[in-house]
Amino acid sequence: MFPQSSQNKFWMFSDENDLTILREKTNAEFIEKHGANMTLEQKEEHFLSNTEERTLLRFYELQLRDFCRRFNPSMPRPTVATALHYFKRFYIKNSVMDYHPKEILVTCVYLACKVEEFNVSISQFVANIKGDRDKASDIILNNELLLMQHLNYNLTIHNPFRPVEGLMIDIKTRYTSLENPEKLRQHIDEFLERVFLTDSVLLYAPSQVALAATLHAASRASANLDNYVTDILFSREQLGGIIEAVRKIRSMAKCVEPPSREVIKALEKKLDKCRNQENNPDSEIYKQRMQEMLDEEDLQDNERYAKIIQDQAAYDDKILGVNKILSPIL
Amino acid sequence: MDDQACPRCKTTKYRNPSLKMMVNVCGHTLCESCVDLLFLKGSGACPECKIPLRRTNFRVQMFEDSMVEKEVNIRKRILRDFNKREEDFSSLREYNDYLEEIETIIYNLANNIDVAETNKKIELYKKDNKEQIAKSKSKIARSEYELDEMIELEKQKEEEKRKELVKEEIEAKKRKIRDKAALIDELSFSDSNATSIIESFTSVIQKKEAKVPVKATQFSTGIKFGNQGNQSYLSVPKIEEGPLYSYTPIRQQIEGPSPPGWREIQARGYVSHVRNECDRDRAGGFKAHVACLRALQEAMAGLYHNPSQRQAEFATV
């Protein structure tokens, strides 16, 4: 369950401020590394700032959601939620300029499909991508291990969907004065969609998100759940914390708005210039490095083979006392 | 695959399903009817290698490859004489050398290498080790004899056991009839309550039955427990046993209001709000309770989660 999970232990942050600090640090580190000999103004000119990164990421989160919606065969919601979770986690400790979000995006979805047991093969998966499919599958498979490594192999994600079910069962059982609880569902689903585009999943427990969704849905459907929360679910002393959390989650979900197209275009252009070329599969540096790695492997194989041959010859020599076994035919 | 054919009359297994291939010491095959024909007199030459053969030495071919057949045959013959065992040698090395030598002889004979020389060697060995061969043969015979004896003994025991069982059964039947009669007598002549009489009788019978089991001294095969002692088996090593494992239920930290338990879900009607499991689900041991319980637990777990508390925790670390 959640309290013992790696999600709670390693991937929960205290507040938005905390997240901002971490992201700023990541951004600064990248600029420090790649722009060491530039002046401050040059740096600002050349690299993306933290807020610009955030805008780009928000855009790509929407992209991710849309990609999953269009996905064929249709993808279950927990898979989408998990993919978004991975995406957020990855960019807390990595800069957008280091790894391009469009590559990490598909990799996150692919990994989420596996973890959430939504079985698609890579060819089936790539069929949903426009453009060069071979290249896409190369990118995904190359990045998959990298992604897992950066997620610290904490792959289990606790999503709020099951807690929502639990709350519904509980409401139906213990709060019978509410008529037709099923009418809340539609609003709950809408709310959860939006929650996943915010940072609240990195700050609050899935059950809290579920509760916030339910309460939000109740207010939308003009149903009253206040008595359920105050009298049945919580005791007095615990009430303060949860009200605060629910209020925060709801307010965060309110201010989700897609960034404008022009801004994104400008930012992408900037990103193309300043991104880390070593991780760009189209760049010369990347290709060169890959080639070197391949050569190295070949070389290693050859060396190993030569050594085996030598060992064998030495062994034959020792056993038979002749340098070469002469073929009887020759 | 069925291209087994007689080299002389060219009959195949396909044409004659009852075809039986025979093989003699030289390793060349012939079908049964050809053997009948060629070896009418009891002896003749192999049509392929012209070696004089005796009819009595023909056997049904067991292996498809007649060379294998030949080798098996030779091996059997050689091992009858070369029958030393590992105990007869002072070291493993010597024993291995001996085995190696046997293999060389068999290989030579099977592949027609230095046949005359090898045969001479065998003769020499036979002469040198006449006494030893005879002894080993008798030894093998004796061990077989012992085995026979053991089987005989076992059979005897089984018979005894069976008889005893029959006797016991008859005894039990008699006792039951007796008890019944006593009960009816009691019921018809006593003044006390009928149910109490029946109760007292049943308790007496139960007590008797409880006494019956006797501590078993034999395995179900009839071999006594302690019997292995005089045989040369290695005793089973005793495993040091630690303290017995005792189960302690897992305590989950909830960090929220405590969810209802397995019983409560049923009693308070939580289960009625989830889809009922169908027969197919139940076959795998699944119940709707599981899903219900899990959903409720996850709904409650972490509700008290407080991000700002974490900060305090981090600060102390």
UniProtKB/TrEMBL annotation, chain A:
Pfam families: Cyclin_C_2, Cyclin_N. GO terms for molecular function: cyclin-dependent protein serine/threonine kinase regulator activity. SMART domains: CYCLIN. One of its GO terms (biological process) is regulation of transcription by RNA polymerase II. Residues 62-149 form the Cyclin-like domain. Keywords: Cell cycle, Cyclin. GO terms for cellular component: transcription factor TFIIK complex. Regulates CDK7, the catalytic subunit of the CDK-activating kinase (CAK) enzymatic complex. CAK activates the cyclin-associated kinases CDK1, CDK2, CDK4 and CDK6 by threonine phosphorylation. CAK complexed to the core-TFIIH basal transcription factor activates RNA polymerase II by serine phosphorylation of the repetitive C-terminal domain (CTD) of its large subunit (POLR2A), allowing its escape from the promoter and elongation of the transcripts. Involved in cell cycle control and in RNA transcription by RNA polymerase II. Its expression and activity are constant throughout the cell cycle. Belongs to the cyclin family. Cyclin C subfamily. Associates primarily with CDK7 and MAT1 to form the CAK complex. CAK can further associate with the core-TFIIH to form the TFIIH basal transcription factor. This is Cyclin-H. It comes from Camponotus floridanus. The lineage of its organism: Eukaryota, Metazoa, Ecdysozoa, Arthropoda, Hexapoda.
Automatic annotation (TrEMBL), chain B:
One of its GO terms (biological process) is nucleotide-excision repair. Its main location: nucleus. SUPFAM superfamilies: RING/U-box. PROSITE patterns: ZF_RING_1, ZF_RING_2. The keyword Hydrolase does not apply. GO terms for molecular function: cyclin-dependent protein serine/threonine kinase activator activity; kinase activity; zinc ion binding. It holds the Pfam family CAK-anch_MAT1. GO terms for cellular component: transcription factor TFIIH holo complex. SMART domains: RING (SM00184). Keywords: Cell cycle, Coiled coil, Kinase, Metal-binding, Nucleus, Transcription, Transcription regulation, Transferase, Zinc, Zinc-finger. Residues 115-176 form a coiled coil. Residues 6-50 form the RING-type domain. It is found in: Nucleus. Associates with CDK7 and cyclin H. Stabilizes the cyclin H-CDK7 complex to form a functional CDK-activating kinase (CAK) enzymatic complex. This is CDK-activating kinase assembly factor MAT1. It comes from Camponotus floridanus (Florida carpenter ant).
